[in-house]
Design brief:
alpha+beta; 13-stranded mixed sheet; 12-stranded mixed sheet; globular; disordered N terminus
């Protein structure tokens, strides 16, 4: 990046947060995990033990309060902050001379604009993905007879060295130097359109490439080689015979309309954001139009991040990118709508970067914000602006962060 302002915009976008959600019967294990993000047990302050409490309302009606797994294809471990998803295999189409080259591509499915398959496969349904296909942000895939996908182009190099040197104290952001640990080629995007099976669009991020099943099988119990797989991969196993493959990925914590959530951060249109979030840099995602939010033709939903929120590992108000770098914890970003809360969810988040003004800091107004309209209210009153005092709004960075769970 050429300027600190540009770096700041990128950094704010990458620290996207996700939260995992669990059923009410596991609230006790939530408390035992002792993480700042998990909801407390309802028995606190009551005269009866936790076993006396019934199931949460979300058990009977998903839009009511309570924990709820949204990406139903995955198995969530709340204490470990991970999700385990089916691992799919594909290949890249070769040229007319070589035919189909056996380049092993391993990917996951998280979202689709096809309601029927979203329900059947346990994916997130996002109608907005339809509008992502008007430019270069969606690549073409073909479904083969063996149910694998052949991609027309686009792969990821995971061998890059991930580097990040924090900025000078007291503000670690923007970083002095950075480079992402995985980089897509000029044709790579996590979004695909299956041309011979309904032309539906899927969010299908690549998590390993140019590595065969035998090599991947050595990572079934963990300790993967991140020069071969995505930095968020903790375990990856291709399966043998008729058994299906799986991959376990690290989740991020965040908020949506006051509710804690967990989500996957997998790709970004910006190299600094990709570095900060340990995700894949995809230049093609930058072709998605930002700043239009819920208007006709918009493929995005807004994500709100902060440069200079409160810091301190034990501070219940901590939030923002300075905290993420200094404290080594999630930035606790605020997401717009997610399924069961709104109808405008998209895994493609348009980063809106906020800076608490000097006047807000002097008056100690800075605090942890957890909802979109809460953020917009502070921006309306002038307590939060864009970087350098610019108007608050989009900084034109896309992060691919499928929602996984709602905790409340």
């Amino acid at each position: 990046m050429d300027t600190n302002f540009s770096k700041a915009k990128i950094f704010m976008v990458t620290a996207v947060v996700a939260v995992v959600f669990i059923s009410p019967t596991t609230l006790l294990s939530f408390a035992q995990a002792q993480t700042e993000f998990q909801p407390p047990a309802p028995s606190i302050g009551a005269k009866v033990p936790l076993s006396y409490f019934g199931p949460p309302p979300s058990t009977f009606q998903p839009d009511l309060v309570g924990p709820l797994k949204l990406l139903r294809a995955g198995q969530v471990d709340v204490n470990a902050n991970t999700v385990t998803l089916p691992l799919y295999h594909g290949q890249i189409k070769g040229n007319s001379t070589t035919g189909n080259v056996a380049k092993n591509i391993w990917y996951v499915l998280t979202d689709t604009n096809d309601k029927g398959n979203a329900d059947q496969l346990g994916l997130n349904f996002s109608p907005k993905l339809t509008y992502a296909a008007v430019g270069q942000a969606v690549r073409v895939a073909t479904l083969e007879k063996d149910t694998s996908l052949t991609f027309n182009a686009g792969t990821v190099d995971f061998s890059s060295n991930h580097t990040l040197v924090p900025g000078a104290a007291p503000n670690a952001f923007p970083p002095k130097t950075f480079s992402p640990g995985s980089v897509g080629d000029k044709d790579y995007t996590p979004l695909i359109r299956i041309q011979n099976a309904g032309n539906h669009i899927y969010d299908a991020p690549i998590v390993a490439a140019n590595v065969d099943a035998k090599r991947l099988s050595t990572f079934c119990n963990g300790n993967p080689d991140h020069s071969l797989v995505h930095d968020k991969v903790l375990k990856i196993c291709p399966g043998t015979g008729t058994s299906t493959g799986t991959v376990t990925l690290k989740l991020t914590q965040g908020f949506s309309f006051g509710r804690p959530v967990l989500y996957l951060s997998l790709d970004s249109s910006n190299p600094l954001a990709a570095t900060l979030e340990d995700v894949t840099y995809s230049v093609r995602l930058g072709d998605i139009v930002t700043g239009h939010d819920d208007s006709f033709g918009s493929a995005v939903e807004r994500l709100f991040a902060f440069v200079n929120g409160p810091t301190g590992k034990d501070n219940p108000q901590r939030q923002g990118f300075n905290s993420a770098i200094i404290d080594g914890l999630d930035a606790l970003n605020v997401l717009g709508s997610i399924p069961t809360i709104g109808t405008d969810y998209s895994p493609l988040w348009d980063v809106n970067l906020g800076v608490w003004t000097q006047k807000a800091l002097v008056n100690h107004y800075e605090s942890r914000l957890t909802g979109e309209f809460e953020v917009l209210g502070f921006a309306k009153e002038g307590w939060i602006t864009g970087p350098g005092g610019a108007p608050f709004g989009s900084v034109s960075i896309i992060v691919n962060c499928p929602i996984v769970m709602r905790l409340l």
